[in-house]
Design goal:
The chain is α/β, with parallel strands linked by helices. The chain is 44% helix and 18% strand. The protein folds into 2 domains: 209 residues, Spore Coat Polysaccharide Biosynthesis Protein SpsA, Chain A, CATH 3.90.550; 93 residues, no CATH class. Strands 1, 2, 3, 4, 5, 6, 7, 8 and 9 form a 9-stranded mixed sheet that branches.
């Protein structure tokens, strides 16, 4: 079985080079590693003086401008021409926990009907308590498989599949049209919906682990959730019959129990404040069409997306 890896990059740091090294040292080594890099100068600065072979032996680079970047189309460009059996999409800050990441993700495809597998994400050492809870909430310790029969039970989580580290059966990926274009966010969940609706299953491999977390400020959470909600509003065929808000209520309730268990109940105060920013961003994003272009550009973390979308 062969695997090609696609990693979008923007202003990468030394962590990316460590990730690539760890990927090259996997028990199942990747066939290709393709970096879809936004703004060439940033990657050039990182690689200046380094001995990495950019001709294709160690990794390949495709440069795009910030105005060209698109969460769906850019990843599709990285996968174009691949003849590997599987495609692994990662982000530039998802660090493999060991050398068996690819091997364990491939193993999950042994289950009947599985066409996509996503890895467990653990918080980095510098992660806040809230971010540690978030990783525990979204990435539990036990593996499972999701199908269309789970929609009533899981709701929106039926389609959860994070491209921070997710692998797809390439033939199925291509046959079902790849990721949708003109995506501000959520290309992974929209394609997961396509898989589920076409009778395929999605596996969560808890034993395949990466370290990946962010300590976002309140405003960063606002902008992120605005874009998240915009993506949902743009794809009602995916999200109109499943609720995100009920999942949000469960998230807050379990967070409070987690902070009490950790003997830091007062942490719920800043967490509640951040949750308020998240909710505000989400509500505005769901109704972005009612906002002026000026208001949208103040709310989004992705102004280039909207400039391109409007044009």
């Amino acid at each position: 079985m062969t695997v090609d890896i696609v990693i979008p990059t923007y202003k990468p740091d030394e962590r990316l080079l460590t990730i690539i090294k760890k990927l090259r040292e996997q028990t199942v080594a990747p066939n290709r590693i393709v970096l879809i890099n936004t703004e060439q100068r940033y990657l050039d600065n990182l690689l200046r003086g380094k001995s990495y072979d950019k001709t294709g032996k160690y990794f390949e680079v495709i440069n795009v401008s910030a105005r060209e970047f698109d969460h769906g189309a850019t990843r599709n460009a990285g996968a174009a021409g691949s003849i590997a059996d599987y495609l692994l999409f990662m982000t530039q800050d998802a660090m493999p926990a060991d050398d068996t990441l690819i091997e364990k993700m491939l193993k999950a495809f042994d289950k009947t009907g599985v066409a996509a597998v996503y890895a467990r994400q653990l918080a980095n050492e510098d992660a806040s308590l809230g971010e540690r809870f978030s990783r525990m909430f979204n990435y539990p310790a036990d593996s499972f498989v999701k199908t269309g029969e789970d929609k009533e039970r899981l709701g929106i989580k039926t389609y959860f599949c994070s491209n921070a580290c997710a692998m797809y059966h390439r033939e199925v990926f291509e046959r079902l049209g790849r990721f949708p274009k003109d995506m501000i966010f959520n290309e992974d969940m929209v394609f997961a919906h396509t898989l589920i609706e076409n009778g395929y299953a999605i596996a969560y491999a808890a034993d395949a682990v990466v370290y990946h977390s962010h300590n976002y400020t309140n405003m960063q959470q606002f902008h992120r959730n605005f874009d998240l909600a915009v993506s949902q509003a743009m794809h009602p065929e995916v999200f109109e019959d499943v609720s995100s808000e009920s999942e949000g209520k469960t998230y807050v309730k379990e967070a409070f129990a987690y902070f009490k268990k950790e003997k830091k109940p007062l942490y719920f105060v800043p967490f509640a404040m951040q949750s308020a920013f998240r909710l505000a961003g989400y509500k505005l994003g769901k109704n972005y069409e009612k906002l002026s272009r000026r208001q949208i550009l103040k709310c989004t973390a992705s102004p280039n997306f909207f400039h391109k979308h409007w044009s």
